[in-house]
Amino acid sequence: MTSFVFVRLASILPYIKRCLLSSERRDSLKSIQTRLLNSTVVSINVCPSSTNVLSAYSSYVRPKGIFNKVLPNYFQTQQRNLLRHVRRPVPFNMAHHLYGQLIENHERIKPKNTEDGVSLLRRLATAGSPEEQIKTLSTSDIIMCLYAWREQTDLTSKTTSIVQSLYDDKKTRVTGRADANLLLQVELSKRVKEEDLETLFHCAHAAFSSRGRRLYFLTSFFDHILEEFDELSLTKSQFAKILFYIYYHGDAPERLLFNLQNYLSENMNSFDFNEVHVACLGFFRANKRINDYAILNALADRLLQNLNIVSGDALVSIMKTFRHSGFTKVSFFTELAERLTSMNLPNITSLNQVMHLAVAFGSLRLYHEAFLASLVSRSKQILCTTRSSVVRTKDLGRLVWALGTFCYKDEDFLLNTVVPVFTESLSRNVTVQYPESLVDVAVGMAYLGLYSDDIINAIFSSSTAAKLRGKDEVTDT
Predict the structure, then answer these.
(1) What is the distance between the alpha carbons of residues 32 and 47, in angstroms, rounded to a whole number?
(2) What is residue 136's three-state secondary structure?
(3) Cβ 100 vs Cβ 106: under 8 Å
(4) For 276, how many CA atoms within 13 A lie in the half-sphere containing its CB?
(5) How distant is the alpha carbon of residue 164 from its chain centre?
(6) Distance (Å, rounded) from C-alpha 475 to C-alpha 477?
(7) What is the model's pTM?
(8) Residue ranges per domain, the chain?
């Protein structure tokens, strides 16, 4: 039945393409909808031809019953794919720490006293229509409100917090808890063309510092930077700030990323490694491959020359960029492994850093026995001094997967260190946050001929299966 449906869909694909060029394309596509709805097909799997049919159809006809009746599996699969590619938000404390490393004097742009911002927030909280009141504020006043917003959300007593009154829908006539913050950002977004570049950076930092759930302003900020990019004379600091906000936001216009890549190519040797670190994170989080081999090769050469001063986090972000961009220069990775081994893994202090190094080599199938032994030894040291309750199972699972791809077998580490961590995590139901880690560790150990009943049973449990499918709950039958 499934094969028959694939043939039927593929056979009408040329007809659909011809219809798209005709003046009666909508009527033709609707006739296809009627024909498919009258068929006996109830479910098919995703295939390239069916995806093309859906793309052509949905571009011109409002989706109705055909999608629910004919292609339920398609939409379930698309939903799971979307869930996989949605970026988890960056924790504010982590991003703030990174910003502190990037800009040593970043505190200077923040006001020492936010009393004016607090008074403005109080006025907004008592206003009948805060939307109209916000429009009357100057840009500097809105910035003050955003800085004061962060301090007010830190108050322990919610009853006395000014922000709580802004959250009250009855007083603000705004829907959603964070929409009052959003209103401030929306008003700033309307003024991007009126302000100079330095003021816009202040607006971006204020929006970031407010810890708003949605940084609406950054979208308009990126669009404006793209529109005026050729006219701007960006400094290194401004370039790094833009990529920091892209990293925090998780997305940016493709053309802007391309322009930033060209800027990086022209000024590669002038950046310090903190700026390079942020740039790599920005491109990686925005899912942008650096396709200029000269940039990657220059970055690799600089990394080898300054390996002793590069932080562990910066090294990891660079390795992630290499992996994401398809940089596979064997001589570089070989020399990197030898130097890191001889230097006893300098500045590698967390399991996450160890994991990313192992995965970088594992994904390229570049085997270096002494380097792998150093990574395992460092992992043992970290796990011996870290409570299992704070170990991220995702890091441990990917590390075991990488070791498995190399058939690097250390039974003591795997059976006496890794398995107990996962067993305890299962007892505390922690692995539900990263259900893929169970599959990673099971597959990695299977490569080595090792099996854990607890992990295998957990993988095939109904709750784990539901998480892997992108569902929150499942009903046992």
Answers:
(1) 19
(2) coil
(3) yes
(4) 28
(5) 30
(6) 6
(7) 0.74
(8) 2-85, 90-214, 357-364+374-477
